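Hi there, hope your week has been kind to you so far. It would help a lot if you went through both lines with me. No rush at all, and the record is pasted right below:

***
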Amino acid sequence: MNVEHVLSAERAGIDATLERLVASPGTWPQRLHEAIAYAVFAGGKRIRPILARLACRTAGGDPDEITEAACGLELIHTYSLVHDDLPAMDDDVLRRGRPTVHIAYDEATAILVGDALLTEGMQLLARYPLGVSWAALRSDAVVMVAEAVSSRGMVGGQAEDIESTGHDGSDRDTLEQRLERIHRHKTGCLLQASLELGALLAGADPSQQGAFATFGRDLGLAFQVADDLLDATASADDLGKSPGKDARTGKLTYVTLFGLEAARQRLGVLEEKLVDRARTLEGRDGELSALAHYVCRRSS
């Protein structure tokens, strides 16, 4: 399977839907909507809505019925990036290869962009798919995604990531547990929710939803371990953001804690586990398996 072809086709459909759903830059208040468009249409990979659509298809649903809801995940993810880049958080000047929102506009605007994107993302999940017959599943989807990005999920992982910056390297076992907890929450919770959303809206039973959630949980960890490796090895052009920043700021990552080779070995173990899990969901050599390879071997 040509995963790049699958991702490109999926991305094109998602981008077209986002163009339709996101307010145009000329909408009042104009500067805010210009900044929102700047953040959303900066060339993201759209992994989260793609995961939702692939899970929906794998679970027997029609992914075209859930594209608008899946786009809600992308808006929520973009909010998290905008806020993560703020001076009070990671204080980064590059995102997706161009100036971050608070650099291109200003800090107050960036905060409001994040606020708006989170709200708009949840609104899409509450509204789509349209129709009374979807009402119960929409309600379940809103609760599930809200939990994933709450103080017990993505936001909690971000909080612990900040608390862990500047660790002294003592008590390695405790630090490893903390590191995995950060990654599983800060990055993993929304990736897991993306797969769960697709399965949920496809009408999967609780057992099937649980299998997608388990795959998503491990995929989220693998995605962040790959990110740790890229931060240490990729250039700014490849990475789309400032490289080497984790080490300079004392971030707790797999590379800063264990070194490059051990981090690569950990990622290899996760990749094997993900492929095994994907096969239980879709058989051999399916889309989820190909995406697992892509996440673990990406270069940007």
User: Anything to note?
Assistant: DSSP finds 16 helices and two strands in the chain. The first strand starts at residue 94 and ends at 95. Strands lie at 94-95, 98-99. The first helix runs from residue 3 to 21.
